[in-house]
């Protein structure tokens, strides 16, 4: 482990203060063209009730990280190193049957595009019931059908849906309703961690806001920690307490949301924020110059250097910056802050 932050995370994993601790996690895809390091040494920690948003351009490794947290990484992907502590237990060491019991009970996913995660030929209530029954740890505590029906209705009400929705098939629901059903399934066993992977992609702006409000309410009710994955900085800013910025498989900056927006440290974060459309100034969306690197052939030194307006000739092309805490609660990897310690 190289970074101060990873060391901090490792220490906190020993305590019960955090719901989730990720320590130097690495997820690779083995492809015929070579190894893609989609998650390359990510460390972070979340306390109960915390909301962390992870942002970054397409291909920066956000979804790969989300799947790894659920231990749902599929071939050719594999977790090659690191640890994920859920309530103090390292889930990277668990066999699948044990992990299966933890999903929904301890950690749940609100997936990207619920239409693909719901079974098209099954009524909503049966999908919710299946989720519950699949993950009841003690079979003797299996609820009876009346109890299950009541539970489904309560869950639907919590996500703002009427009991009638339970009798419907996914194709009879709007995109927003499907996403609400996915949220009902995710909270059905009161997990301590919710991973929401772009929960509002493909929804219109008004529905997006409503879904985020519902997610926020559910999270508060459970005092769950939430990792929200997204690339819309504006949307995540309204939801999160902290923001982590990913670039080419690495976390390049992490800090409280307000501070990230008013004083971003990493040049990539600055560009992400500057590229946000600003209605008051009628600023045009400009995007970030250049393209994200292909993870098969990463640039030398700082992987962001070919696109960085602040790059330091010589150093940035040859030396990879360390990810470190540069001020209280502020972490970044950039040579501009070399020698600065919190
Ligand atoms: P998006 O916002 O588009 O969902 P992302 O930030 O979530 O992007 P990932 O989907 O995690 O990024 O992808 C990270 C990298 O891993 C990309 O380079 C992608 O091409 C690669 N990758 C993802 N899935 C696979 C796979 N099944 N096989 C090979 N490479 C993959
Ligand atoms: Fe830019 Fe250098 Fe900082 Fe990388 S290390 S973000 S190239 S200034």
Characteristics:
32% helix, binds adenosine-5'-triphosphate, Rossmann fold, binds iron/sulfur cluster, 342 residues, eight-stranded mixed beta sheet, alpha/beta, four-stranded antiparallel beta sheet
Commentary on this structure:
The structure is a single chain. This protein has 342 residues and is an alpha/beta fold. It has a domain at 16-106 and 191-255: Rossmann fold (3-Layer(aba) Sandwich). Helices cover 32% and strands 23% of the residues. It contains twelve helices and twelve strands. The protein has helices spanning 4-13, 62-69, 96-102, 114-117, 124-134, 145-158, 175-187, 205-222, 233-239, 257-262, 267-274, 315-318, and strands at 20-31, 34-46, 51-55, 77-86, 89-90, 107-110, 193-197, 225-230, 242-247, 250-256, 323-327, 330-333. It has an eight-stranded mixed β-sheet with strand order 6-7-8-3-9-10-12-11, sandwiched between helices. A four-stranded antiparallel β-sheet has the order 2-1-4-5. A hairpin with a 2-residue loop joins strand 11 and strand 12 (330-333). The longest helix has 18 residues, at 205-222. The two termini are 19 Å apart. The mean pLDDT is 89. Iron/sulfur cluster binds at residues 266-267, 302, 304-305, 308, 310-312, 316, 321, 334-336.
């Amino acid at each position: 482990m190289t970074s101060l932050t990873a060391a901090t995370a490792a220490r906190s994993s020993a305590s019960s203060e955090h719901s989730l601790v990720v320590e130097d996690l690495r997820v690779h895809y083995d492809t015929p063209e070579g190894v893609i390091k989609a998650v390359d040494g990510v460390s972070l920690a979340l306390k109960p009730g915390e909301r962390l948003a992870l942002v970054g351009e397409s291909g920066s490794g956000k979804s790969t990280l989300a799947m790894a947290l659920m231990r749902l990484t599929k071939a050719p992907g594999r977790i090659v190193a690191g640890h994920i502590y859920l309530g103090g237990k390292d889930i990277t060491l668990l066999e699948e049957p044990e992990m299966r019991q933890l999903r929904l009970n301890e950690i749940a996913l609100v997936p990207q595009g619920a239409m693909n995660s719901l079974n098209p030929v099954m009524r909503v209530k049966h999908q919710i019931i299946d989720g519950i029954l699949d993950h009841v740890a003690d079979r003797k505590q299996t609820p009876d059908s009346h109890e299950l029906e009541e539970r489904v209705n309560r869950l639907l009400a919590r996500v703002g849906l009427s009991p009638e929705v339970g009798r419907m098939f996914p194709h009879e629901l709007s995109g927003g309703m499907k996403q609400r059903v996915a949220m009902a399934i995710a909270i059905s066993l009161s997990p301590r961690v919710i991973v929401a992977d772009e929960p509002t992609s493909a929804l219109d702006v008004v529905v997006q806001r409503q879904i985020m409000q519902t997610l926020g309410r559910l999270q508060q009710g459970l005092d769950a920690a939430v990792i929200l994955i997204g690339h819309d900085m504006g949307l995540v800013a309204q939801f999160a307490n902290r923001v982590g910025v990913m670039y080419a498989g690495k976390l390049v900056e992490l800090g409280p949301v307000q501070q990230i927006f008013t004083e971003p440290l990493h040049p990539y974060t600055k560009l992400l924020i500057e590229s946000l459309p600003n209605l008051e100034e009628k600023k045009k969306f400009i995007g970030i110059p250049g393209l994200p690197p292909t993870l098969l052939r990463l640039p030398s030194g700082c992987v962001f250097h070919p696109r960085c307006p602040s790059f330091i000739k010589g150093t940035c092309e040859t030396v990879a910056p360390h990810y470190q805490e540069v001020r209280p609660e502020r972490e970044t990897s950039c040579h501009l802050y070399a020698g600065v310690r919190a």
